[in-house]
Amino acid sequence: MKKLFENKVFKFLASIQLALPMILLISALLAAGTIVESRYSTAVAKRFVYSTWWFNLALLLLGINVLCSALSRFPWKKHQTGFVITHLGILIILAGSFVTQQFGVDGQIALNEGETGHVVQEEKPTLYYQIDHGSIEQIAAGFEYRAPSPEHPLLIDLPHDGLLMINQFFVNAQKSVDGRPAGPNEKGFPGVHVVLDSSFVHENQWLFLGDPNYGHLDLGPAAVFFEKEADWEKRRAKDPQSIAPNTLAVILTADNKLKYQTSHNGQFTPMSPVTIGTENPTGWMDMQFKVADRVFNAVPEESYKPVDFGYQKDLNPALHYEVISRGGRKEGWLGFQNQTAFMLAGSAFELAYGPRQLELPFTLRLVKFHLGLDPGTQKAASYASDIYYTDMRNPGQEVPYDISMNKPLHHDGFTVYQASYEPQPDGKYVSVFAVGQDPGLAVKYTGAIVLVLGIILMFWFKNPAWGKKEK
Amino acid sequence: MKSKLWLFLVLLLAAPLSAQTLDFKALSLLPLQEGGRVKPLDTFARESARMITGHEKFQGQGSMDLLFDWLTHPAEWNNKNFILIENLELKNLLSVPVDQKFVSPKFLIANDGFIAYAKMNYAKQEKKISLNAMEKESLTVFTRLQRFEDIETGKLLALLPIPNEKTQKWVTLEDLQDAYRKNPKGMPDAIKTILATFAQVLKSYDAHDAAGFASNSQDLSMLLAQLGTKESVDPGKIALEVQFNSLKPFQWAWILHLSAFVLVGLSILFASRALYVPGFIAFLAGIGISAYGFILRCIIAGRPPVSNMYESLLWVTFGMTVFALIFELIYKNRQFVAAGSVLAVLGFVLADNAPTILDPSIQPLEPVLRSNFWLTIHVLTITLSYAAFLLSLGIGHVCLWTLWKYAGDKERLKKQIQLLYRVVQVGIVMLAAGTILGGVWASYSWGRFWGWDPKETWALIALLGYVAILHGRLSGWLKEKGFIIGVVLAFLGVLMAWYGVNFILGAGLHSYGFSKGGLPYVIGFVTIEVILILIVGLKPTKKA
Questions:
Q1: Is residue B128 part of a domain?
Q2: If we measure between CA atoms, which residue out of A36, A291, A67, A81 comes closest to residue A179?
Q3: Number of domains chain B is built from
Q4: What is the pLDDT of residues B428-479, one digit of tens each?
Q5: What domains can you pick out in chain A, each with its CATH number?
Q6: What is the ipTM of this complex?
Q7: By CA distance, what is A24's nearest residue in B?
Q8: For chain A, which end, N or C, has fewer CB atoms within 10 Å of the first or last residue's CB respectively?
């Protein structure tokens, strides 16, 4: 023991000369983290600061420093009681945090009224794959420490000498949709590239007539449609007020010509012909529009490009995969929360990229969500969910419970909290629960109590070294 | 002869004044439902004036006067520049001259581009996309315009205490007018009388008929009171709130603290006990009246007053004065009252004079903040730690003064540093405990103990700042001067955790406290501190 205490490395690790720079360094890293969070988002700060190897290394080094400095003063004297207890408290808290980080669960489950569920989604991006409807395999695909690239792809062996390769990854990607002329055997749609411009707003998007995803553009107080003349007439006749206060319709006539019509508060302008590339006023929001391009039979083509982190709440990672199996080869992009299925050399492949799914040992059934409002306002005053939970080991036995803000459900080591809600168009609600399991919590609470007691003790019996130089 | 002339002048001046001065007393006590609670019309008028024009008074008109002027002369006000616009970029975009502070409702309504821009920003906000300063300001200006319009149409004047069964919403004057327009015959006479009486009130307001105005407002108040039930309106609470509005206890508090500072400051300069006693009494009175203000505010709001920046600034300032009093009583050292009172003046004056930044209106709490034992404990502990650090900032400045003035007097400095050290210790214990209690609460409400949320992160950074100073002192790297400067600088961490996260960073889960503005003041404060420290720090130490 004595030898260790006299070791130069140990002495340095135990020294206040290491402690002070470590405290300042960690403060600086934390401050930088909050600025990143403010500039971008919580997800960006988490990924690029708080969950990086260097940040965790800094915390580890601080822990070692605290431990060594407490040990180096052994055997402890009476006046060091506060000092030892305080530093022990810090160590316990750090240890508890490590336990939480390694073994804790922190996810979400969203339920419609009447829906039953037991799968929690965790933030960790995961790639799921399944071959010929066999077992579902998963790979962590957040790539926090190192992203795969064409030079260093991530390789996963598949049965029958097959290979799944991830050879490109963007931590934040934007899907762009272009109109490509359809091939001879492809199903296409008429496509137009619409550009909207004002001193406040710049929007441009491809619209595909009849495509469920890219049929129209919603801007909040305004909407842009691309429809056949007859369909547009039908929509207009139904209830012109309900379409949107401001509309622009690009209309495909029976003889394949383009016309447009705008409306402002239910007042429609006459239809006029569209000239490709020419700007026309929309009559609302001080805005000009043009049809920049047109393809008679177009296919929406998705691709991903890396983009800067804007003000968006979550990151949208995307990965590029390549599957080689029995001589067949298939590659493509997969964005977060997306899936794809294809046949390759006689085998059925399914790939899905999204948050990690975790099965709870019990199911939750949401009966009703209650939103309390402040009297006479639309402001939420309280959230509450009537639920039933059923243990998997005891199927058929439903237990009622009422989860509300600040009143979670504790069951089987998990805690289910009321987190938020989403109103649905039909007047019903989706209730969002946070589900957590924190095996480190008791450790952290213990550490917290020890720490605060230590500080009080330390200040009560003031360190006699105060004001003198410590030897 | 001379005295009689004086009397004559008073009568001359008073006569025309009394003929024109309208008494808003009866109207100011009318209960009105808005923003999720029942409040007196007086509060509604003050809040509206503050929100739309930035101050409770606009060009000499008090807020009740302003409210009735809006209602009586909507057309004139539509053309008048009185809607506050602050952001320079937005002024530029709307081609408003930089030195023009206000715009008219008509100007805004006529600008289609602006209206659409504000609505799009609203849609963005609903989608939880963060807005930049100009986008936020466009929404604020739009809300001001909307508030004026909703007052003008009567939409916000929910004066009839007849709650809707489903939404609990009271009936507004707009509802009455709509109902009247649709079916004038089907309307009960009692309701018709209310509309007619309201019209009479406006008429006598227009005519500056003080007697008529008084009797008409009396009538209106009686008619409305007959509709109310005991559950919907508590007249005692309404009267208390009007009293709170007009008493302005926190304004009195800073006046008292200012006199305390002057008296105690002089007593230190001249070593006089005769000056100290009244100064100390003024200090006690300042604490007393601010405590009274807090009690009133708690009764009115029905909760502890620490939910937004305005309330926390008042609370921290108040807590600081209480700490100063306790330390003064223990250590019998006048510098605590001196430092405490001058900081109290700064805190209370700031809270009193920046209504667009620090919103003094009483609002219902966010759901997550309601009825939670841990939250109350956590917030109170944290804010009291800020209070202790605020006091340490004051004592730190006293130490800086000692360093400057009595550089050679080691004994004097050492004694003062001991006091400074004690205050910092109290702050550290409370900040550590408060931050951990925040984790306990977060774990109880959100399901995680610690999540590197900016508010908790900055609380930790502030704590680490003070911990660094303690370690610096222990290691001998910081001498007396360094320790004092360190304590003053470490307060910047507290400032960042307290103000900066909500007003500068504006990110994270503590979003119920987010706001904007005030940055120039804070930068000004920081600059002055840095200059002060440079002046004292760079002064060569005399060898004793």
A1: yes
A2: A291
A3: 2
A4: 999 999 999 998 888 887 778 888 888 899 999 999 999 999 999 888 888 8
A5: 2-104+441-460 (no CATH), 106-172+307-437 (no CATH), 176-302 (2.60.200)
A6: 0.81
A7: B468
A8: C
